[in-house]
Amino acid sequence: MTAPKAVNPGRRKFTTGVAVAAVAPTMFWIKKAAAAEQVIVRTPGGVFDDVKKETIYDPFRKETGIEVVPVAATTAKLMAMMKSGQNELDLIDTGDSTLLELEKSNYLMPINYDEFKYTNPADIDPVVKRKYQVGCFIYAMVLGFNTKAIPVGTEPKSWAEFWDLKKFPGRRTLPDMASGTPSLEFALIADGVPMDKLYPLDIDRAFKSMSRIRSAIPKFWDTGALSSTMLADNEVSMGALWSTRAAVAIDQGAPLGIQWNQNALLAQAYGIPVGAKNLANAKKFIDYSSTPEAQARWLAKYKAIPVNTKAYGATSRDLIDPATKTPWTKSKGFLLDINWWADNRQKVGQYWSKWIIG
Amino acid sequence: MTVKKSRKFSDATVFILPAVLLLALVFVGPLIWFFIQALASVGTPAEMLSYAWTIITSKAVVTALMTTNWISLMVTLLVLLISYPLACYLANNQGMRFTLVLFCIVVPYFTSIIVRTYSWMVLLGRNGIINQVLLYLGVINEPLALLYTKTGILIGMVYVLLPYMVLTLFATMKAIDPSLMRAARGLGASGFYAFTRIYFPLSVHGVVSGSLIVFILSIGFFITPALMGGPSDVMIAMLIERSVEIMFDWSGAAIMSLLLLFATLVLYGIYYRVTDVRRMMGA
């Protein structure tokens, strides 16, 4: 050791400790990277990952020897990563709108359905089978309500009723612009626009319609957690929220009900970023996790609708319309047009900024 | 002489170098990169300026700036009002009392801000504990709108920012020689008179620097107002986040961030002038 004798051992110990603490995570990372074949996936994290690890990642590793490494990243971080050419991801697991934005900036590679070995591409719901992204599950923006405040069966059955403050008094919530997609579609439906003639959205009319119930909305939600918390705490008695969020809250015992009429279909999806280092593994992972078996195993625990139509049989019964034996999104929903939103989000955002303070 | 001086200089430089490098590498560099990337996409400098002007003068940004300033000012005043007596108590007590109060102030500081904010939401909601108790006691007939209002933001932010003020004030007050107060009293000054003429003037630079810290932190606040505020309580940091995350309008976000950064630097400049930083650090 060349260290001067004057340094007391306590301090040296401390310094060494700091040095180890600083280097340790990197060592861990390198060790992990060198371990085996892997695929680095951006995921939403949290409960989502816990369930997916058990039902998809672990079986996938057993089957192929490829380890799935989940990484958290916000949309802005993804954009920054791609913009600076510092992509460290092999696969992005996120909302269909975000993937579309990445696609428009030429940051995604096409999905090669022809190379699928585990899954028959024909089984994938065409609604989420796109050139640059493929759905991993389907969910919806639905009308949710607190069952203690509004007993099941007496809830509003349409957005027109949701907008009717006289017939259904009480506080409500709707998504904020910060959630990405405020409920302009529901506002238009409530105002009399038929579900199949929504697009292109009449922004002006939609905001006028929202103004009619603004007084009953104490808070627009920006994150999914807030929407279900407000409903569960009866801070609001009804609101528009993601079906997956509602399902998680219901499973935890919250008094929440879902009315599926006029729901807006959304998808969580996979996209492969340009520059993916483990490209083959990413493709294999998409292929594997789209099989009816993997979808059934996963989505029995995480309450969402499979993209593989062969997996409907194993889907949670809450998600299937008993009248048609198809998912509620098919029987009662409409497809949220992410292309319209990608083209108009900035315009809506500017409109929103003025409307919200006015 | 000169050799010794330069060695002294280089010694100090060596110690500060890692911090400066780290800051340059992970903060200043990326910041400049972001601004250049974001603004370059607008076009020529003239276009950039006119774009910046449109953004800064837009109703949304002006209103957000006013809201931000108003909330930050109120938070600073409230924090000061609560912290001053607390810090005074801490500076003049030892042993268990000191430890206990300090513990209560500092421990929440180490808890995640999101957890603390959600806890407040449980307490303040329409069906929250506070409203339940007040309704039960008959103090109120209808739940108070504590959450999703400016009141909610103030409560949440005051709570989060309290330790910064208390600790700053405590450092100043601890340095006040207690014999000065005793002398004043001994010479016949009333307690109030001694406080206003001796103690408070001596503590005033702590008040100024504490207030500046709290104000600086307030204008960039995001989580608490986003979660606890009402629909129209939009602070500038929330606008920036929305521009980056949702609308991918990085140029707009960059302009608003520059505005916020500028305000912060100006305030920090004042802070640096007013406060003897070395004394604050206990040197």
How would you explain this protein's 3D organization?
The complex is a heterodimer of chains A (358) and B (283). Chain A is an alpha/beta fold. Chain A is globular. In chain A, helix 4 (96-104) packs across helix 13 and helix 6 packs across helix 7 (203-213). Chain A has 2 domains: 31-138 and 267-320, D-Maltodextrin-Binding Protein, domain 2 (3-Layer(aba) Sandwich), CATH 3.40.190.10; 139-266 and 336-357, Periplasmic binding protein-like II (D-Maltodextrin-Binding Protein, domain 2), CATH 3.40.190. Chain A contains 13 helices and 11 strands. In chain A, the strands form 2 sheets. In chain A, strands 1, 2, 3, 4, 5, 6, 7, 8 and 11 form a 9-stranded mixed sheet that branches. Chain A has a two-stranded antiparallel sheet with strand order 9-10. In chain A, strand 9 and strand 10 form a beta hairpin. The longest helix of chain A has 27 residues, at 9-35. Chain A is 42% helix and 18% strand. Chain B has 283 residues and is mainly α. Chain B folds into 2 domains: 1-40, no CATH class; 44-109 and 161-280, MetI-like fold. In chain B, helix 5 (113-124) packs across helix 7 (150-174), helix 9 runs antiparallel to helix 12 (250-274) and helix 11 runs antiparallel to helix 12. The interface between A and B is medium-sized, with 32 and 36 residues.
Provide a brief overview of the structure.
The complex is a heterodimer of chains A (358) and B (283). Chain A is of the alpha/beta class and 358 residues long.
